[in-house]
Design goal:
- The chain is α/β, with parallel strands linked by helices.
- The protein has a single domain (14-242), classed as Carbamate kinase, CATH 3.40.1160.
- The protein has helices at 34-49, 66-71, 76-100, 122-130, 148-158, 192-197, 205-214, 228-233; strands at residues 14-19, 53-58, 105-109, 118-119, 134-138, 163-168, 173-174, 186-187, 189-190, 218-222, 240-242.
- α1 crosses α3 and α5 packs parallel to α7.
- The longest helix has 25 residues, at 76-100.
């Protein structure tokens, strides 16, 4: 069966979704927009009802970006750790929204914070996933200098996910910014190496290289289109696949 993009659809039972912190802002310039958080949680809940095991990695750019902190004089390592704390706030927000819909979740942090979430232990996380809980991974890799994109690929590999879904504001990978260039070419499929060589900035280079080495396909789709994720999982939808 083929999707609207012309790419042969596959059935995935275990996925990792990489969600940017900015996706939680809605139309705001900063922070969390509760209706947007609830809408995303509802989308995840419907996907969970399909029987799909879900892992989730969320960025922290809606609260703090390490690179921006450095430009304001904050020491780089400290700035990166501040960004990791932002991902924990976002993870707790999504957890609360999902559990209000009856979806069991666990937040697992690469930086131990026993009072508010579990430490990331791979075997424990696998057990949660096997029990049908949504696993939300916070604090990136727990190390400075690595983005949450890299954390997403790392966790997807550790959790034996079949694919990474990269949720963005556009419905795939484009040759140029479609919000600026109305004639921008959208790729139906593209290789890891082409994405790196063309500097398409879907993910950072470290994350793409790791995904290539782990043979983890990346599906880029729009988080703004309601039902977009389920449509892809059911054999339709519009997206770009990097493989």
């Amino acid at each position: 069966m083929e999707s609207e993009s012309g790419v042969e659809a596959k059935t995935y039972s275990r996925i990792l979704i990489k969600l940017s912190g900015e996706a939680l802002m809605g139309e705001q310039n900063y922070g969390l927009h509760p209706p947007t958080v609830e809408r995303i949680a509802s989308e995840l809940s419907r996907t969970h009802e399909l029987g799909v095991r879900i892992c989730l990695v969320i960025g922290g750019g809606n609260l703090f970006r390490g690179i921006q902190g450095v430009t304001h004089g904050i020491e780089p390592t400290t700035a990166d750790y501040m960004g990791m704390l932002g991902t924990v706030i976002n993870a707790l927000a999504i957890q609360s929204a999902l559990e209000s819909l009856g979806v069991q979740t666990r937040v697992l942090s690469a930086i131990p914070m026993h009072e508010i979430c579990e430490p990331f232990i791979q075997r424990r996380a696998m057990r949660h996933l096997e029990k049908g809980r949504v696993c939300i991974f916070a604090s990136g890799t727990g190390n400075p200098c690595f983005t949450t994109d890299t954390a997403a690929v790392l966790r997807a590999s550790e959790m034996e996910c079949q694919v990474i879904f990269k949720a963005t504001k556009v419905d795939g990978v484009y040759a140029s910014d479609p919000t600026i260039d109305s004639d921008a070419k959208r790729y139906e499929s593209i290789t890891y190496n082409e994405t790196l060589q063309k500097n398409l900035k879907v993910m950072d280079a470290s994350a793409l290289a790791l995904a290539r080495d782990q043979k983890l396909p990346i599906i880029v789709y729009s988080i703004l289109k309601m039902g977009g994720l389920q449509a892809i999982l059911e054999g339709g939808g519009v997206y770009t696949i990097i493989s």
